[in-house]
Amino acid sequence: MVLGVRGDDGCRLWAEQAGVGPPLVLCHGGPGLWDYLAPVTRLLEDHARTIRWDQRGCGRSQRRGPYRVARFVADLDAVRDQLAGPRTALLGHSWGAHLALRYAIEHPERVSHLIYVSGTGIDPDRGWHPHYKRNLRLRLGPHLDRWEVLSARARTPAEDREWAVLQWSADFADPGTALRHADRMATPWRGINHDCGQAINAEVKEELRSSDLAGQCRALDLPVLIIDGTEDIRPRWAVDSLYRALPNSQRVSLAGAAHLPWVESPDDFRRAVTTFLRQ
């Protein structure tokens, strides 16, 4: 069921809910992308009432700023308030994992469970990023030259889609199916909001340097599940300090899966999430 949500500043946000059970709000990654978590909804439809949404400026939501982390946290609170109820579980993927973590830190009484999928941790020096860039180029293999050509120039909408599919293909472990999975993510193509992505990424980088996220995580007294794919090109040791800081957390690493573990290890992903939500 497609539903509309209004942010507290009137911004129109696209949302959809499906399934039965306790509420679970899903936060997609990016920043600057749109919701691609429908496969997660299908995996969990008998266990949770999932609520998916496009973040402001992205996909089917209103193309409107400001693109600030605090603004996205407020939008997530509007989604929670209008669709989920007073308390909900959260599942965030990649950048969405950081958004869900920030929301839980600011509103712990409104979160029952936090599921942190393929995030990049809280280390202020972002020491994982050089490893990511090297691994990205290695994983792109025969597509590297074309990706570099597209990366270096202003792109038409068709070229932007081609660039995204090539880059996203590196987020899957099996080169035989990677391009097909990435193309499915890009269909239908809703256009990347690069301004949003640049603004949010810059703010998160500064936030990690200037705030004590580790201390805030040590005070977060709610259950947290960290899910990683062992083949993610973002090194998973980047999340170690977050795992150590959280007082009530568990960690599941799915062998053979990469950045979108529900695609390459769906049964294990569903088992991990549903077991956690039943606790």
Task: Describe the overall structure.
One of its GO terms (cellular component) is membrane. Keywords: Hydrolase. It comes from Micromonospora violae. InterPro entries: AB_hydrolase_1, AB_hydrolase_fold, AB_hydrolase_sf, Peptidase_S33. One of its GO terms (biological process) is proteolysis. The two termini are 28 Å apart. This protein is an alpha/beta fold and 279 residues long. An eight-stranded mixed sheet has the order 1-2-4-3-5-6-7-8, with helices on both faces. The model has no long low-confidence stretch (mean pLDDT 96). The protein has one domain (2-128, 192-278): Alpha/Beta hydrolase fold, catalytic domain (Rossmann fold). It is 44% helix and 17% strand. It has helices at 38-44, 69-84, 95-106, 129-140, 144-151, 157-169, 178-185, 194-210, 213-218, 240-245, 261-264, 266-278, and strands spanning 2-6, 12-18, 23-27, 49-53, 88-93, 111-117, 224-229, 249-254. The protein has twelve helices and eight strands.
Note the total helix count.
Answer: 12
Largest sheet: 8 strands, mixed
Structural class: alpha/beta
Unreliable stretches (pLDDT < 50, length at least 5) are none
Total beta strand runs: 8
Q: Calculate Rg over CA atoms.
A: 18 Å
Task: Please write the string of helix (H) and strand (E) elements.
Answer: EEEHEHEHEHHHHHHEHEHH
Strand line-up of the largest beta sheet: 1-2-4-3-5-6-7-8
The shape, in one word, is: globular
The CATH superfamily is: Alpha/Beta hydrolase fold, catalytic domain
Q: How many domains would you count in the coordinates?
A: 1
| Distance between the ends | 28 Å
**Helix proportion:** 40-55%
CATH architecture, by name, is 3-Layer(aba) Sandwich
